From TrEMBL:
PANTHER family listed in its UniProt record: ANKYRIN REPEAT CONTAINING (PTHR24173), PROTEIN FEM-1 HOMOLOG B (PTHR24173:SF78)
Species this chain originates from: Shewanella algidipiscicola
SMART domains named among the record's database cross-references: ANK
Top-rank lineage group of the source organism: Bacteria
Pathway named in the protein's UniProt entry: Protein modification; protein ubiquitination
Keywords: ANK repeat, Repeat, Ubl conjugation pathway
Protein name: Protein fem-1 homolog B
KW Zinc (keyword) present: no
SUPFAM superfamilies for the chain: Ankyrin repeat
Placement of ANK repeats on the sequence: 47-79, 80-112
One Pfam family this sequence matches: Ank_2
Length: 168
């Protein structure tokens, strides 16, 4: 058997929800959701990103809405506790941010360094998200300095985790 034939056997040809969400392939996403009744809508990749998280990161509003309507966990989080709402605050897409809130996303959830969606918006100067949060969920927000410190702590934690996995 040739090495090419061996390689072809390992190549995945089926499309997953994660693939569809990442690429914005709405047609394939809807096809998978409607024809695969036992699909795990909250499946995650090795970083803990769900299809919803990837759709948010890639500004795919239609994919986000389809996943949410099919029961995707609106408060799902990655391996370091960043929620889909935090991802949306980081990206600054107000339409997706509002969509997540409409489906029940909790803006008070925190990641492993106690950052909230508001902190992410503040950290990356997403004025539209900050203004919306201030109008809709008024609260005393941390200073930008505190948000930076939390972000550095999160970054350090992620680097240490990666280094420990390399050394094993």
């Amino acid at each position: 058997m040739s090495k090419w034939d061996d390689y072809k056997k390992t190549y995945r040809v089926d499309t997953t929800l994660i693939d569809c969400a990442r690429s914005g392939d709405f047609y394939s996403l809807v096809n998978l959701l409607s024809h695969t009744p036992d699909i795990n809508i909250n499946e995650t990749n090795s970083s803990g990103y769900s299809a919803l998280m990837l759709a948010v990161y890639n500004n795919e509003k239609d994919c986000c809405e389809a996943l949410l309507r099919c029961g995707a966990d609106v408060n799902s989080a990655d391996n370091v506790g960043n929620t889909v709402l935090m991802a949306s605050a980081y990206k600054g897409n107000l339409e997706i941010f509002k969509l997540l809130l409409a489906f029940g996303s909790n803006p008070q959830l925190t990641n492993k360094t106690n950052m909230t969606a508001r902190d992410w918006a503040l950290m990356f100067n997403r004025k539209n998200i900050i203004d919306y949060l201030n109008k809709t969920y008024p609260a005393k927000a941390d200073s930008k300095f505190k948000s930076i410190v939390k972000f550095i702590a999160l970054s350090s934690m992620m680097v240490m985790k990666r280094l420990s996995s390399i050394n094993q």
